[in-house]
Amino acid sequence: GVLKEYTGSDSHVVIPDGVVSISERAFFGCGGFVTQITIPDSVTSIGNSAFRLCINLFNIKIPNSVTYIADGAFFGCVTLRNITIPDGVTRIEDNTFSHCTSLININLPSSMTYIGLQAFWKCTSLKSITIPDGVTEIGWGAFDECESLTSVFIPESVIKIGNQAFGSCPNLTIYGKTGSYAEEYANEKGIPFSGISMKWQ
């Protein structure tokens, strides 16, 4: 089954078991009243802008069954503090967590290969992030205007970082392997770089 559009007014929404996908814009515009969403482990995909502007959503757990999260899924979820992306997800698409201004902790799985354009744009509370080994590309503006960001760990697998990926991050140090592309990028952009020799995982 597909959850097309939520029109109720519960603050804690429990999506029924058996739903396999949450469609595009399913919760878009439920605005202020939804604070928690429980997703069953029958769900494998979350559609474009599914939870966009759920401004009081502070608690959501994405089950391990989910393998695909579309563009802008959590755009503007300004009270969301913690999120764990489950193991089968390989990409953070464009704008997925843009304007999640309270997000302090995000765990990315080792299955990850790509972080999209403006994926974490204006996540102004995020202080530190570890990019998993296996990611090859970080998109344009991915962490732009993450003004609290002090440390990003970038593995050797990353060979492409878009322009403005770390724009307006005044306190940032990039950590990575000496001689890696991450170091080259940091030097080119004038971002402080700290070389580490051991794995940090």
What does this structure look like?
With 201 residues, this protein is mainly β. Helix content is 4%, strand content 22%. It contains one helix and 17 strands. The strands form five sheets. A four-stranded parallel β-sheet has the order 1-3-5-7, with no helix packed on it. A four-stranded parallel β-sheet has the order 9-11-13-15, with helices on one face. Helix 1 links the parallel strand 16 (173-176) and strand 17 (193-195). The radius of gyration is 17 Å and the shape is elongated.
- From the N-terminal CA to the C-terminal CA, the straight-line distance is 38 Å
Summarize the main sheet.
Answer: 4 strands, parallel
How much beta, percentage-wise?
Answer: 15-25%
How many strand units? 17
**Uncertain ranges:** none
Spell out the helices and strands N to C: EEEEEEEEEEEEEEEEHE
Count the helices. How many?
1
Query: What's the average pLDDT?
Result: 95
Rg from alpha-carbon coordinates = 17 Å
**Strand order in the largest sheet:** 1-3-5-7
| Alpha-beta classification | mainly beta
- Helix share bin: under 10%
Shape annotation: elongated
The quaternary organization reads as single chain
Describe the secondary structure blueprint for this structure:
Layout: E1 2-3, E2 12-14, E3 21-22, E4 36-38, E5 45-46, E6 59-61, E7 68-69, E8 82-84, E9 91-92, E10 105-107, E11 114-115, E12 128-130, E13 137-138, E14 151-154, E15 160-161, E16 173-176, H1 181-189, E17 193-195
Parallel strand pairs: 1-3, 2-4, 3-5, 4-6, 5-7, 8-10, 9-11, 11-13, 12-14, 13-15, 14-16, 16-17
